[in-house]
């Protein structure tokens, strides 16, 4: 456990929970690659910011994460799930064969999650609810895996794109009418990428 405060400024630009989770690595596959999830406290902070864990649950989880062994195992599962989602969705984007181990791991998480989903009685109808004991660390992964499964089984999958900036690698939903969104975020990657291309053109003209 480090004493560093967990991150609190994650970005949610993908338009889909599971992709925002996959995007918790900055500058993917580039020499500057930077993992934003370094402790399980980071995962809890991400989940709280994503709105899938309440403040009260997050407090209990942070307490549970003080158990180093448990937190380490949970972090390993979280990162494995994240990479599984990234690899499977990337395969869809690149029209490559499905990667076997990531699909296996996602299915395993879905199996764990499936048994924890219960119907909660509401006023007019029922809703799905996650039935995790308070402070259950891995329960964060269930809605993420569920969202990935829903994406992978829907037509929305064809709307996933990878950011055009060559050092980014983030995935996002392109819900524009003519499927023209190129960057995860214009103000960040879009401008950086345009500037890079401009200087390349200038250099080429010299
Ligand atoms: Zn980007």
Key terms:
206 residues; mainly alpha; two-stranded antiparallel sheet; 49% helix; globular; binds zinc ion
Molecular structure report:
The protein has 206 residues and is mainly alpha-helical. The chain has a single domain, classed as Jann2411-like domain (Jann2411-like fold), CATH 1.10.3300.10. Helices cover 49% and strands 10% of the residues. The chain has 7 helices and 6 strands, in the order αββααααββαββα. The chain has helices spanning 17-22, 40-50, 55-64, 68-94, 100-114, 141-152, 186-205; strands spanning 25-26, 34-35, 117-121, 126-130, 160-162, 171-173. A hairpin with a 7-residue loop joins β1 (25-26) and β2 (34-35). It starts with 16 loop residues before the first helix and ends with a helix. The model has no long low-confidence stretch (mean pLDDT 92). Bound molecules: zinc ion. The site of zinc ion has 7 residues, from loops. Zinc ion (ZN) is lined by residues 163, 165, 168, 170, 183-184, 189.
């Amino acid at each position: 456990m480090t004493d560093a405060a967990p991150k609190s400024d994650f970005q949610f630009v993908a338009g889909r929970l599971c992709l925002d989770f996959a995007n918790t690595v900055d500058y993917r596959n580039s020499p500057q690659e930077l993992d934003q999830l370094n402790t399980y406290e980071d995962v809890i902070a991400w989940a709280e910011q994503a709105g899938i864990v309440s403040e009260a649950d997050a407090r209990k989880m942070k307490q549970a994460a003080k158990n180093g062994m448990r937190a380490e195992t949970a972090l390993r599962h979280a990162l494995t799930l994240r990479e599984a989602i990234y690899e499977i969705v990337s395969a869809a984007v690149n029209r490559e064969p499905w990667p076997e181990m990531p699909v296996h791991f996602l299915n395993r998480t879905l199996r764990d999650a499936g048994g924890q989903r219960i119907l909660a009685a509401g006023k007019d109808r029922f809703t799905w609810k996650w039935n995790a004991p308070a402070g259950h660390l891995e329960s964060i992964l269930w809605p993420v895996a569920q969202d990935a499964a829903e994406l992978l089984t829907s037509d929305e999958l064809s709307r996933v794109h990878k950011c055009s900036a060559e050092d980014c690698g983030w995935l996002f939903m392109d819900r524009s009418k003519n499927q023209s969104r190129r960057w995860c975020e214009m103000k960040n990657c879009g401008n950086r990428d345009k500037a890079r291309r401009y200087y390349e053109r200038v250099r080429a003209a010299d």
